[in-house]
Hints:
Growth Hormone, Chain: A, 81% helix
Amino acid sequence: MPASQPAWRERAAILAVFSGNAGLSLIWDVLPPVLIPLAKHFGGGGQGQVIAQFASSLPFFGIMIAGLLVDFPVRRYGTRNVLLVALVAFGFLGSVGAAIDHAWLLLVTRFLLGIASGAMLSCCFGHVAVNFDGPDRARMIGWLITFGTLTGVGFILVSGYIASAFTWRTPFLLHAIVSVIFLGPVLCMKRGKAAETRKPASGSYKALKSTFPVLALALAMQAISSTFQIHLAFLIGAMPFGTPSAIGAIFALLSCAVAAASFAFGRWFVHILPSTGVVCGFILIAIGLGGSAGAWSFETFVAPILVYGVGIGLTLSCLFTWATRAAPPELATKTMGLMYTCLYFGAAAGPAVTAPVPIILGIPPLFLMISASIVAGILIVILVNLGRRSAA
């Protein structure tokens, strides 16, 4: 970290970069416990369900758009100022849902909330890319993902509890609480750094050419992840033991595995090559998918879910580390924005592209097809690299 301000401000400023993951986790997890009463409030039936679904999904389209646009204000006004505005907007736009009675207004605020969250994420990861180097940067990325996963588990539990204790509107106020908690650390950040604020060279997307493989892998990983998690819930729900509590326990195990893997990466494995980590992560994802396809009881789901979660945590940590190493410093925020654009485009595209497969063949064959595709992709990459080495 820069040494031109008091040590206590530097330590406080480090906490600011965790605000993006906290906000993302809250967007993911504040609504599931209140979707049913929210749908009833806005008309019930099919209309209410559609509004509830859009309220859940629109923030992620906002994140995609923010990832494309946030680089310009960051270069003009600096990371700290953009993050500060986004944090305040996040607190307001999220909490105002507690008082809104018009469906269209709720949907507009949820979309804008996604833009604020996307700006926060891009600023936080861009700040880490610029201000940390080598193992320290990889360690911070691992811990950011760990923090985001653990807060996600916490938020969904807290949201359900306070919705039961008060009203279904109360969990929306968590956005303001998160905003207030991180306001001090963000104010302690430096106003900017030359590498963040200078204009990038012409043809900035050409300068980002080295990050394109990472962006493609991020899109593919998130497409696989969203497809798997959606259909996993249906697969378990169709089994004799598939109660809501069993589904919740499986997804809690998954979150814990992701958190453990990303923490282990940040604590012990920061020196491995990101490309090697990504390959290992995708292999674990393939094993987890294949194992889940053959599971028939709660106990037989545990091992493949844990393997899959470790693969996701390792792959995410290595992809972000790889992207920060490949991008020029002046394009760090743009790169992080593009990462989140690709991640959430993949999250939307994956289930849409694979939708006919479980209808025609069933969910286990879908998992096996994805697993086989991952293995085939890895083998193709290995063979291509061996061919290039032989030609050289």
